[in-house]
Structures are given as C-alpha cells and as structure tokens.
Amino acid sequence: MVRPTISIGRNVEGRNVINTAHGHPGLIDVHTHAIDPALPDLSTTYPQDRWPRVDQISETDATLVFGGSAYRKIDHRCWSPRARIADMDRDGVALQVLSPIPVTFCYEASAAGAAELAASQNDFFARLVTDHPLRFAALGGVALQDPDRAIDELRRCVRQLGFLGVEIATQVNGTELADPCLDEFFAVAHELDALILVHPSDQDLTPRLPGLRLSFGAGMPLETTIAAAGLVGSGALTRRPYVRLCLAHGAGALPAVIGRLDKGAMMAGLDPGSADRPRTVARQLWCDSITYDRLALDAAIALFGEDHVVFGSDYPFPAMPKPLDDVVAQLPIELFRKISRTNLENHHGALPRSGPHPLPVAGRH
C-alpha cells in the first residue's frame, strides 16, 4: 500500500490548504454521524418504549422516525460509503470517525432494547470500517442506562470491533455524567484507552427554547455546558482515572463560563491554588472544533490547550460548517495541523485498531 504524502500551505486568501499525493487529502473528522438504514424493529418486543426507525423514501432519501413520529429527513450520506467518500474527497477529509445519531441512544427506554439497538448499529459501523479501513473509523453506542451492559458493549467495541471508543449523551435519562454510578464505566474506558465523544441529545432544557427557536443555537451547547460544568466542578474527573472525554460543539459555553465556575468554587471555600479548581480540572478535557466562530474556537483552545482540540464537522447534517474547515483553516499552520489531524494521531494510539490509516500513528506523548 502506498501511503499519501501530506503537506500544508496557505492559499492566496490566507487559508490553510492541504496538498496531497496519491489522491488522499489530510483531515481527520472526529465528529460525523451515520445510521443503519435497516435498524431492528424493537416496537413489537418493547412496545412500551419509543424507538427509531428509518423509513426509506427512495434509494437516496429517507425519514428518520422516532416513536412513530417523523424526527428528521436524512439521505444516503448517512449510510452509503460511496456517497460519504465522494464528499470526503471533495472536502479534503482523509478519515471520518463514524458515530450514532443521538436520537438512537434511547437511554429512557428498556436497557435490553437499547443494548440490542446499540449492538446492531455498532455491527453496521464495523462493516463500513472493515470494508473501507483507510477512510473510516468508529465510535460506537452503548446502553448507558445500564452501566453493566454499557461496559460489556464498550469492551466489545474496542477489543472486538476495533473502534476508537464510544459516543455518549450529556446525561443519562436524568443521571449526570458526574454521578458515581458511572464511575465503573469510565474506569473501563480508561483501561481500554477509549475515546469518549460527549454529544447532547436534549435540546430543550426549558420550554422557553422552542418558542424562541433556540433549540439548536442555545439548547444543544447549553446541555453540553451543564454536563461539562458538572464534571469539572463535582470532583468526578479527579475521582476517576483519566479518560479522553471529547466535548462536542467546542464544549458549548464552558470556555465562556469557566471563570464564573472558578469564582463559585472559591466562594464555596476552594483554595485558589487547588488542583481541584475547575479551570485546572478542565485541562483534562478535549473538544471538537465545531464552533462556527474563530473567537469561540480560540477560547476553547485557550481552556483545553492546543493539543486537546480535534477537527469535527457534524457531517452529513445541515449544521456542517461551509466550507467544512471554515474556522480551523484560519489558524496558524502548525495549530491547523494539530487540530486537523495530528492531535488524534499523537494522543490516541487506537487508530490502527480499525486497520491501516492514511498516516502512521506517532508515538504517544
């Protein structure tokens, strides 16, 4: 196999561009979504719960249905490797990390059914990765409402399917990620060196949001903010072994409120020099680059460090930046290089588990 040669330079507009040989572009996209168009029908076995299904309209179009009601329109980019790879080649993406669409988490449903759904989707992702190991890696799903089942599936995802880790929601049917009942799950994630993408699934924290049309603009990032603030302020991250927790959408508003979290902790008696200071604890976390705004991305980089930010796009949904690297392409070249691919390569040695990838993984730091 001939590996691509990758170099980065600037175009006449001052944007970073990736120049490649052998036809392979260079971005690693850590935040993309996919779905099996043939999800298992769980409504008969677990009729008391709401489940997702995909209603095919044509070869290229479908409706994602949840609990019997239309949830959103989707198309073949959600399941077709050919369509995805064509877009990747157009957009300069070498590797996509596939993850579930959050509505399929089903944490409020039967744990047995949610585990069956997660396993089925994970098997679908595994087939895509096996068939296209140079272009896809994956983060699986787990039934986190039952930590024991979630641990079993997490182990299967990493050890048997070769996934980088899993994607989870910002809360588990009302249980916060900082809750001690999830300590064992995160301990196993540490043991497996798994990457955990934390993605909001509840856009409507308050009934005010839909009326103001703020579910997307404020609801999703606020959900992430609350989960992240709980993690950095509760002692959960110092209590647990280190896990690569990557907060979706630039960590929401956490970079903007970290000073207030620090002040609140000190008002409650925390010593300013304590290792438990929220700002200090937050340095353990990662985030993706989906901010749509250079100042917001700069704030995330300042909080987490330039080695803890990775490129994401939300492909294939309308929330994708246009162009895909719209904000990160404005960064200094070396920082662009880190966020667009080498941060994941340097800090996550799991990439080869899914097969050979466009560039060799660098040594762990």
Short key terms for the protein model shown above:
8-stranded parallel sheet, zinc, 365 residues, single chain, globular, disordered C terminus, decarboxylase, 15 strands, TIM Barrel, 3-stranded antiparallel sheet, metal-binding
CATH homologous superfamily?
Answer: Metal-dependent hydrolases
Q: What's the CATH topology label?
A: TIM Barrel
Give the topology string: H per helix, E per strand. EEEEEEHEHEHEEEHEHHHEHHEHEH
Number of helices: 11
Query: Can you tell me the residue ranges where pLDDT is under 50 for at least 5 consecutive residues?
Result: 1-14, 17-25, 350-365
Residue share in β-strands: 15-25%
Overall outline:
globular
User: What is the number of strand segments?
Assistant: 15
Q: Order of strands in the sheet with the most strands?
A: 3-7-8-9-12-13-14-15
CATH architecture: Alpha-Beta Barrel
Write down the Rg. Answer: 20 Å
Described by strand count, sense and barrel closure, the largest sheet is: 8 strands, parallel
The CATH class assignment is Alpha Beta
Count of folded domains: 1
Secondary-structure-based class equals alpha/beta
Q: Report the mean per-residue pLDDT as an integer.
A: 89
Helix content: 25-40%
Spatial separation of the terminal alpha carbons: 27 Å
* Quaternary organisation: single chain
Enzyme class: lyase
Protein name: 2-amino-3-carboxymuconate-6-semialdehyde decarboxylase
Pathway: Secondary metabolite metabolism; quinolate metabolism
EC number: 4.1.1.45
